[in-house]
Design a protein that fits this description.
There is one protein chain. Helix content is 23%, strand content 33%. By secondary structure, it is of the alpha+beta class. The chain has one domain. It is globular, with a radius of gyration of 17 Å.
Length: 186
């Protein structure tokens, strides 16, 4: 499938109401063809900044099929969200974040191979003039894989993952987020 055709399909996609997605400049030098998207979960300001979570999706195409990709296409994604501190200390958090990506791909029928990535949990504590901000936690997932079949299913899976990390499971559009789960420190 030609990159231009796939890029047109991705640009025409619609997303759930609580995820704002827009195209951003793709990083150069990774492949001859690239398309990048940014997503913000329930952005609360006019500049699109979200206190809930963000994500990036990059679709790469190299007709020469790099050996590490095992094919002409590669997807690179990033998703992060702040957490309650007690959730951030869960020893299984990284494994859960990775499993959510695999589940999102599976549910969308987004066949893939050659997956790799990292899940990073961060705990922070402010000191001095930042002490009043308190403790913070964040989960960040960086992953890449080679897609098979319908490439838009992979974009849908990334969007679902970004919302899940932010605490919004599938079907939760329009439901209020309760409590002070989000700490702006991240």
């Amino acid at each position: 499938m030609a990159f231009a055709s796939v890029a047109e399909q991705v640009r025409a996609m619609g997303f759930r109401d609580d995820l704002t997605v827009h195209e951003i400049p793709a990083p150069g030098g990774l492949a001859p063809f690239a398309l990048a998207l940014a997503g913000e979960v329930r952005p609360e300001t006019d500049d699109g900044v979200s206190a809930y979570g963000t994500g990036r999706f990059i679709l790469l195409n190299d007709p020469e099929e790099p050996a590490a990709w095992n094919g002409p296409w590669r997807i690179v994604c990033f998703a992060q969200a702040p957490l309650e501190t007690d959730i951030g200390t869960d020893p299984m958090l990284a494994e859960v974040a990775w499993s959510w990506l695999m589940e999102a791909l599976s549910v969308r029928g987004a066949a893939h191979h050659s997956a790799s990535g990292t899940a990073t949990k961060t705990l922070s504590r402010g000191f001095g003039t930042l002490a009043a901000e308190g403790d913070g936690a964040q989960i960040e997932l960086r992953a890449s894989w080679s897609p098979d079949g319908d490439l838009t299913a992979h974009v849908e899976a990334w969007a679902e993952l970004t919302c899940m990390l932010a605490g919004l499971p599938p079907g939760s559009e329009g439901i209020a987020v309760l409590g002070s789960r989000r700490n702006p420190r991240g």
